[in-house]
Specification:
Layout lengths: L1 H40 L3 H34 L3 H4 L13 H17 L10 H21 L4 H33 L4 H41 L9
């Protein structure tokens, strides 16, 4: 239980608290020209309020990020949900890249289908194939968790979700700055310069999200291959 609590707290900090603090700080900078006097008048409790607000802000952006991933971002980045297309002939190249690695990864699919006696149709539609791949991915996660093989892949998902929240935080701050230019045009130059750097930061964060997501899947599959097969008996492709 202590180990679980420790992992949960680490995940909590990196995916919610830290992004929440960064996003809240960006909001405060944009609002400081008009509302800094309110911050000065508050007592020491303002720091506790800021941390609590940042944590809930992090939760909101994590949930929004998950929703936006499923709605449209996965389609833009990968042309589909990674867990559905990572073992498709016409979709794996956006996730696994190398053809040899893809062929090795298919051995995991065969292993799970065979050992769990999963019934599949001989002529599956693309949607049925995606559903099967999603099921296989879920079993891969379960196998990793049962055999305590999730250490490095968990770090990758934490970094990915943190980068995703910071990406949407930058986008939100850009929108806020545009609004502030309208109501506070005297600081237009500052807001425009900040918007420029926020665009650069948002691009960096979305690329980091994508890289760590792909790296997580690749680590998960490699770890399972080494666990299922002895290093001297890895499947040939």
């Amino acid at each position: 239980m202590d180990k679980f609590a420790e992992k949960f707290n680490t995940f909590d900090i990196f995916t919610m608290l830290i992004p929440g603090i960064c996003i809240s700080s960006l909001f405060c900078i944009s609002l400081s020209f008009n509302y800094y006097s309110l911050w000065i008048k508050m007592g020491n409790e303002k720091y506790l309020i800021f941390i609590i607000f940042s944590y809930f802000c992090g939760i909101i952006y994590q949930e929004l990020g998950t929703m936006f991933d499923k709605k449209f971002l996965y389609k833009i980045l990968y042309k589909g949900n990674p867990r559905e297309i990572f073992l498709l002939e016409n979709g794996h190249d956006t996730i696994l890249n190398e053809e040899l690695f893809f062929r090795s990864a298919l051995k995991i699919k065969e292993y799970i289908i065979t050992n769990l006696h999963i019934q599949i149709n001989s002529n599956m539609t693309e949607n049925e194939e995606k559903d099967l791949n999603s099921l296989i991915f879920g079993y891969c996660l379960n196998l990793s968790e049962i055999n305590n093989l999730t250490g490095k892949s968990e770090k990758m998902i934490m970094l990915s979700e943190m980068s995703r929240s910071l990406f949407w935080g930058c986008i939100s701050t850009i929108i806020l700055n545009i609004f502030m230019i309208i109501i506070c045009p005297s600081f237009c130059i500052f807001y425009c310069v900040e918007i420029f750097f926020l665009f650069i930061a948002s691009y960096i964060f979305i690329q980091r999200k994508k890289r760590y997501e792909k790296y997580r899947i690749r680590i998960l599959l490699r770890t399972l291959l080494l666990h299922i097969y002895k290093p001297t008996q890895l499947p040939t492709v």
